[in-house]
Amino acid sequence: MRYVVWLLVVALIILHQDLWYWDDRTLVGGFMPITLLWQAGISVGAALVWFLATIFAWPSDLIEETQQEAEGGE
């Protein structure tokens, strides 16, 4: 799953370069530029990928170390 998280990070980096909407003046819902909506979607996607990274790719030794410190041992 760690590699899937990295693949999603790379996908977000590529999708963040929204060259296809750069000159598009379309308004979504009559008020929001499509480029701004795209960036909002990228932000939500980044939050989800970070959530997945903390669950599946976070180093387990850091968790164990924190638990030991909380119990009073070193």
Write the layout of secondary structure elements.
Elements: H1 2-16, E1 27-28, E2 32-33, H2 34-56, H3 60-71
What's this model, at a glance?
The chain has three helices and two strands; from the N terminus they run H-E-E-H-H.
Write a concise keyword list for the protein shown above.
single chain, 74 residues, elongated, mainly alpha, 3 helices
Q: Structural class, judged by helices and strands?
A: mainly alpha
Shape field: elongated
**Strand percentage:** 5-15%
- Please tally the β strands and state the result: 2
**Sheet of most strands:** 2 strands, antiparallel
Query: In what order do the strands lie side by side in the largest sheet?
Result: 1-2
Overall pLDDT = 86
* Helix percentage: 55-70%
- Taking the alpha carbons of the first and last residues, their distance comes to 30 Å
The number of helical elements comes to: 3
